[in-house]
Amino acid sequence: MTISPLPLEFDFSLRQHNTFGIDAKAHAYLPVTSVETLHALRSDVQTAALPRLVLGGGSNLVLTQDFPGLVLHMRSRGREIIGEDDDAIYVRAAAGENWHGLVQWTLEQGLGGLENLSLIPGSVGASPIQNIGAYGVELQERFHALTAIDMESGEILALDRAACAFAYRDSIFKHGLRDRAVVLDVTFALPKRWQPNLRYADVAQELDARKLSQPGARDISDAVIAIRTRKLPDPAAIGNAGSFFKNPLVSEQQRNALLEQYPQLVNYAQPDGSYKLAAGWLIDQCGWKGKNLGAAGVYEKQALVLVNRGAATGQDVVRLAQAVQADVMGKFGVALEPEPIFV
Ligand SMILES: Cc1cc2nc3c(=O)[nH]c(=O)nc-3n(C[C@H](O)[C@H](O)[C@H](O)COP(=O)(O)OP(=O)(O)OC[C@H]3O[C@@H](n4cnc5c(N)ncnc54)[C@H](O)[C@@H]3O)c2cc1C
């Protein structure tokens, strides 16, 4: 048998590496600190036939079983200001950097733009995968470009915003480049003429309560951190993957029909004429808030979050998700699509 020159570990527990805290194992595990490791991997005979999973912070994953392949854990580090023009200052960060750490670092440099996205768990490299968003801002609004390696051809790809095909919790990495591209670093364009983004009522209210009528980027970050800490379970204490379902989009006709039956329906008009419904409200109306199924449950403070009540397996989470989806479909005729990736 050929021994791989790569520092592989086998039968590796992923429990500490997924925020649901699911106790699943990877057949093989490789920490990745540089692109050279990925180039070497492409010619490694021992691992060539194994399925691969790129792992960041494991905060958007449900491990439904032991992973029979190779986990590539992105651990690269580095963040720097790389340039500026009339409109923006450009900051590049390595895929393995912690997202919230990057946000805080940009604020320390006096750069605003990412503050509404404070405290989202996970890595920089995963941020474009689902075009992370929170409190009125989506990643794509601050994204400039990224580099990735195409693991099939070995080519280094330079992708701008258009090439990433961002949409709500979506990008090309979930479609054409799925299971192919490993993001190496991401460059952000942080606006020189910074304006506070207070589109989200919660943030405006929190700032009012703090008597901040002219908030700076740091104030907004602090407000977002306070709101998130109140509303969302800390994965270190209660395993979870944040919002478990996307907010579903429905036609105007379906929204009107639902409104007639449910005048309290929480819905938001979209630029394309469709309506976004609040998935958490739909789940709450089905009576799931605070309920458990096996060792998995629906968080008592926010029905959109599924949680690990202790020793939940990935299958417990899948069963609960399916039960919630079936009830929402039965009551409202609306399909809920999970946000995390099932592995
Ligand atoms: C408490 C909590 C709150 C959250 N709040 C939000 C929120 O407000 N908004 C939001 O959008 N999300 C939220 N999330 C979800 C999650 O934090 C984000 O999706 C985050 O970007 C995932 O990063 P990660 O490094 O943990 O990715 P992982 O879970 O490790 O991976 C997610 C996916 O990205 C792929 N991937 C990871 N890194 C790379 C890479 N370098 N190259 C290619 N593919 C890669 C993986 O293969 C996988 O398919 C929340 C999660 C939790 C637990």
From TrEMBL:
<comment type="function">
    <text>Cell wall formation.</text>
</comment>
<dbReference type="GO" id="GO:0009252">
    <property type="term" value="P:peptidoglycan biosynthetic process"/>
</dbReference>
<keyword id="KW-0285">Flavoprotein</keyword>
<dbReference type="GO" id="GO:0071949">
    <property type="term" value="F:FAD binding"/>
</dbReference>
<keyword id="KW-0131">Cell cycle</keyword>
<dbReference type="InterPro" id="IPR016167">
    <property type="entry name" value="FAD-bd_PCMH_sub1"/>
</dbReference>
<dbReference type="GO" id="GO:0071555">
    <property type="term" value="P:cell wall organization"/>
</dbReference>
<keyword id="KW-0133">Cell shape</keyword>
<feature type="active site" description="Proton donor">
    <location>
        <position position="243"/>
    </location>
</feature>
<protein>
    <recommendedName>
        <fullName>UDP-N-acetylenolpyruvoylglucosamine reductase</fullName>
        <ecNumber>1.3.1.98</ecNumber>
    </recommendedName>
</protein>
<dbReference type="Pfam" id="PF01565">
    <property type="entry name" value="FAD_binding_4"/>
</dbReference>
<dbReference type="InterPro" id="IPR036318">
    <property type="entry name" value="FAD-bd_PCMH-like_sf"/>
</dbReference>
<keyword id="KW-0963">Cytoplasm</keyword>
<feature type="active site">
    <location>
        <position position="169"/>
    </location>
</feature>
<dbReference type="GO" id="GO:0008762">
    <property type="term" value="F:UDP-N-acetylmuramate dehydrogenase activity"/>
</dbReference>
<dbReference type="InterPro" id="IPR011601">
    <property type="entry name" value="MurB_C"/>
</dbReference>
<feature type="active site">
    <location>
        <position position="339"/>
    </location>
</feature>
<dbReference type="Pfam" id="PF02873">
    <property type="entry name" value="MurB_C"/>
</dbReference>
<dbReference type="InterPro" id="IPR036635">
    <property type="entry name" value="MurB_C_sf"/>
</dbReference>
<dbReference type="GO" id="GO:0005829">
    <property type="term" value="C:cytosol"/>
</dbReference>
<keyword id="KW-0560">Oxidoreductase</keyword>
<comment type="similarity">
    <text>Belongs to the MurB family.</text>
</comment>
<dbReference type="GO" id="GO:0008360">
    <property type="term" value="P:regulation of cell shape"/>
</dbReference>
<dbReference type="InterPro" id="IPR016169">
    <property type="entry name" value="FAD-bd_PCMH_sub2"/>
</dbReference>
<dbReference type="GO" id="GO:0051301">
    <property type="term" value="P:cell division"/>
</dbReference>
<dbReference type="InterPro" id="IPR006094">
    <property type="entry name" value="Oxid_FAD_bind_N"/>
</dbReference>
<comment type="pathway">
    <text>Cell wall biogenesis; peptidoglycan biosynthesis.</text>
</comment>
<keyword id="KW-0274">FAD</keyword>
<keyword id="KW-0132">Cell division</keyword>
<dbReference type="InterPro" id="IPR016166">
    <property type="entry name" value="FAD-bd_PCMH"/>
</dbReference>
<keyword id="KW-0961">Cell wall biogenesis/degradation</keyword>
<keyword id="KW-0521">NADP</keyword>
<keyword id="KW-0573">Peptidoglycan synthesis</keyword>
<feature type="domain" description="FAD-binding PCMH-type">
    <location>
        <begin position="22"/>
        <end position="193"/>
    </location>
</feature>
<dbReference type="InterPro" id="IPR003170">
    <property type="entry name" value="MurB"/>
</dbReference>
